[in-house]
Amino acid sequence: MSRVLDQLAIERDAPIPTWFRVGGRADRLVTPRDEAELASCLGLDPEPSILGDGANLLVADEGTDRLVVKLGETFREMTIDADTGRVTAGAGADLSKLIHATVRAGLSGLETVIGVPATIGGAVVMNAGGAFGAISDTLTRVHALDRSGERITLERSEIGFGYRQSGLNHLMITGAEFQLEPSDPVKARDRLKDIMRRKSTTQPLKERTCGCAFRNPTLPHELPGIGAAGERVGAGLLIDRAGGKGTTVSACRVSDVHANFIETGDGATASDILRLIDASRALVLDRFGVTLETEVVVWSRSR
Ligand SMILES: Cc1cc2nc3c(=O)[nH]c(=O)nc-3n(C[C@H](O)[C@H](O)[C@H](O)COP(=O)(O)OP(=O)(O)OC[C@H]3O[C@@H](n4cnc5c(N)ncnc54)[C@H](O)[C@@H]3O)c2cc1C
Question: Rounded to the nearest 5°, which phi and psi values hold at 35?
Fold first, then answer.
């Protein structure tokens, strides 16, 4: 491992690109080219932070002292077998590119998660999805390295997928496999367009956001006109009903389109976003007695 470790180029004080386009830098960032180099990252930090597309990520203004790992080119490969419907993708592959390629190949199943900016690794860890389906619906297998650098493969049945969670956060995901169904490419393309059209009317997709800031909570008690005890309801609905839409902190604003999205403008900082998150959380707790948990992943200094 030490010979491989010597070959890893460490970038110091490196920017961390996120969809919010705010936040601090990485003390150390590496881009492993293969699994051996990825495993050797554990020699630099036993708990590295894997960077996907940065679409669900907020980095604190002071940055992070964890080793940030950006998967290199070889982790972006994809294979699509149009005859069997079997699809494989590296964890660094772009989800949107994979979806479009499968639709072009006449395969259906992944288009339900169109409009979710993500790498395959980030989408699997977050079990990305929404009203139309989730990435776990068609997933059959995940490949990863565990925290001792051992290569493991997990079957779908061994993974505890749930609402926006996979239980895989302790792993370094290297790839995933999917089983799709043959379909008429024209119909699948129409479905893609339809989902995108619906999303663009209900979400501020042109703004700088991280998607939903909060997980949709399960209600601890009945809220008349909102939901029954035990029901999962939209965090955005609660923020909206509590009067939170349009709240601003500096150049950050709770979206008028969807109250679970925080839009950032020029000059915004990560601290501003965190203050706005706290403000929305306090508002909903005060008005409805419901505690919101963040969906956005926050990286900061460990000490
Ligand atoms: C405009 C917009 C719309 C969105 N809409 C949706 C939506 O409809 N549904 C939805 O679910 N989400 C949505 N999101 C949030 C985001 O797209 C998803 O959470 C996505 O899965 C994040 O993937 P990523 O590659 O960007 O991961 P990142 O944001 O880079 O990372 C997220 C987490 O995954 C971990 N991770 C990433 N790659 C790996 C890996 N290879 N191995 C181990 N851990 C890894 C990171 O360490 C981090 O903890 C939206 C975001 C935006 C900006």
Answer: -65, -35
